[in-house]
Every structure is written in C-alpha cells, then in structure tokens.
C-alpha cells in the first residue's frame, strides 16, 4: 500500500515539474548567430536574440528554433514541451555553406562529380569533410576548387563567384601516337585539351618523327573569331632527314638547290620527289621518294656517302671546254697548208671524222667515249672557217658527261662538262702554236 502511494506521488510531482518548465535558455557556439522561432517552415520575426535567447515553451507546439549565421547551414531544432529539457541548451553550428555563382549562366555545376545545376548553387560542407566543385561548359577551360570544413584548413568563402573566361579546344591528332605541343610544351599524345587564356593566343604544334610539322594558332581576344570546340590534325606529308658525306655536297630537289650537307625533305601526300646529291669530283646520287600507298614508306632519316669520280683524276678544269676559240693563221701559211696542218692535229687524237669539207672549212669528229666507274665522258672537236682575210679558224672541244654507263647515242643523258680529259688538253695549244 505504501509503494502505491509513493509511485502516485512521483507521477504527480513529475507532471507538476513539467508543467512548471515554461522557458529554456538557448545559446550558440557563435556569439553573432541569430536565433529565430519558427512555425512549421515559417520564420517568425523579430528574432529571439543573437548568440543567446530565452524561449517560452508552448503546449501542443513543436517550439521550433532556427539558428542562422552567414556561411553556415541553418540549424533547426524542435523543443516539444512533452520532453524534459535542460534549462540551458547549446545549439552548435557545424556545417559550412558556400553560395556558388557561375558565369556564363548556362555553365554546369558539379559537386564531387555529380551534376547539381547551373547559374547558382548552395553547397553544404559537413564538419570534418571536404567537397570539390567543378564548373564546366564546352569550349571553356573547366574551373575546379575544393572546399574544406576542417580546423587544419582555411575556412571556405561565404560566396564564391566563378567566371569561365579561358577557352578550351579539344585537339585530336592522327596518327594517334603523334605529340601535341602548346607554346612549345608537350601537353599530350593523340589528344589533349588546349587552353587559350583570355586576351592571349596559343600556338599549337602537331609532331611525329617522319612527318612534316603541322601548326595552328588559336586566339581568345575580343576582335578575333572564337576558337572551335574541337580541332583535328592530320599528319599526311612525310619528312625525310637527309645527311650527305662530304658535308659540302649540295642537295637538289626538283632541279633547285635546297641545302648543303643536310636537309629535311618534305614529301607531300600522293606525290614523288626527286633528289640529286652532287659535288664536283664526286659521283652524283639520284633518288626518288614517294608518299603513296603504292610505294614503300619513305625512311625517317637517310645518310649518303658520295664516291669519288674517277673521271676527275684523268681530266683538267679549263675554260676552253665547250666554247669557240679563234685562231688567226700566220700570213706565211696558205689555206691549203693550214687546213692540212689543222686536220693532222685533230686526227692525232681522233681517228674517226663524221664530217670533213675542205671547201667550206668545216670538220667534225665523231664522239670518242671513255667509260669510268660511275660516269661516261664523250669528247669531240669541231673546226669551222671563221674568216678568209685574214685567214681564221674557230675550234671547239665539246666535252660532255653522263652519270653511270651511257651509250654515245643517248644524248638526253649527257650534259656539258667544264673539264677536258688530259689526253685532249694540248689540241688547241698545238693548233695555236703551229698555225
């Protein structure tokens, strides 16, 4: 019976105590945090206080309190009167809040890799956590930033404005193992994002050994066209790095001298290029490079070593080769005697005469051919009557050279040579002295 009375007394006292708890004191961990009362989702103004406030608990209500401070996620807490609360309750603001604003407005906002919207977004960083924000739009450089809510890190800003201004071009290149350079720095192989800062231009190069360099400039300036979203490089023209020994050898491409000793030869797509390497007293080398599916791929680099031309050892350089040289006959020799003398001088070295006409004073020997390793030399003499009073003859030693073995009849292979074989060097001197 006594126990029943004790339980009844305890219940009565408890109910009396609860009915007597009409107020609680609310404090926050920030002295400038604002304290508001709420009715459901509606904020009741004016606020209850700043940093601390007393709140009268109302029966049959949630007694909802909201703590607000700029840069923090608002904290909402209910205090129903049916629960016994301490006389002083501290509410702790922990989660940081960053208002993210973006330009241009259609740029996309990603939080930890998840798309959350565009134009603006409020990001919440929980205590002792971090999150990463990325702002993306095609044609622009992505902006990325990580916020921390840790004591060891700087506090995140309340508002953070992102403005996409640097342009970005997605560059691809073929062949896929070619390298992409931006302002002389390697940024990728096969593909890369090229960034063009606002107000600047970016110099792009596509490189691969064995191909000609491709270049492009993109600008991000007010008066220039906007850079494209994407750009493709196609390396198709081949490049051969050529070296020649001796280093003083000349390199001729399609009939024009383009280098000495070394040269980077460009072979355009679907074309062939003829290269001739030459140096006086050496045998020339001729080679064709083709950049076509029907031919072997040109080498990346090639070295040539020219061989000495044996014809040079048995010849002399002279300004008498392939030019008309006039000889005035001395007065004591008549036309008949001078013709006989001149004919005998020529036939000393040339056995075969193609044309001989004493009446007109014209004589032409047949070509005499000498074959050497890597070259063919042909020589002949032509004599013409220059004048009758005083008597004068014109003599010409024709000296021509062809690469390799050539028939005397293959005129297209021979070119005039500024040298004369040593065995013919005295013909003009002898004719001059004896006539």
What does this structure look like?
- With 435 residues, the protein is mainly beta.
- The chain folds into five domains: 2-91, Immunoglobulin-like (Sandwich); 96-163, Immunoglobulin-like (Sandwich); 172-232, no CATH class; 238-308, Sandwich (Immunoglobulin-like); 317-434, Alpha-D-Glucose-1,6-Bisphosphate, Chain A, domain 4, CATH 3.30.530.50.
- 11% of the residues lie in helices and 50% in strands.
- It contains four helices and 37 strands.
- Strands 30, 31, 32, 33, 34, 35 and 36 form a seven-stranded antiparallel β-sheet that branches.
- Helix 3 (335-349) runs antiparallel to helix 4 (427-434).
- It is rod-shaped.
CATH structural architecture of the largest domain: 2-Layer Sandwich
Question: What is the third-level CATH name, the topology of the largest domain?
Answer: Alpha-D-Glucose-1,6-Bisphosphate, Chain A, domain 4
Main sheet overview: 7 strands, antiparallel
Domain unit count: 5
> Uncertain spans, ≥5 residues at pLDDT below 50?
5-20
Roughly what is the average pLDDT, rounded to an integer? 90
Class from helix and strand fractions: mainly beta
* The level-1 CATH class of the largest domain: Alpha Beta
Overall geometry comes to rod-shaped
- Into which percent range does the helicity of residues fall? 10-25%
| First-last Cα distance | 172 Å
Q: Total helix count?
A: 4
- The count of DSSP E runs of length 2 or more, i.e. the number of strands, is 37
Rg over CA atoms, rounded to whole Å, is: 50 Å
Strand content: over 45%
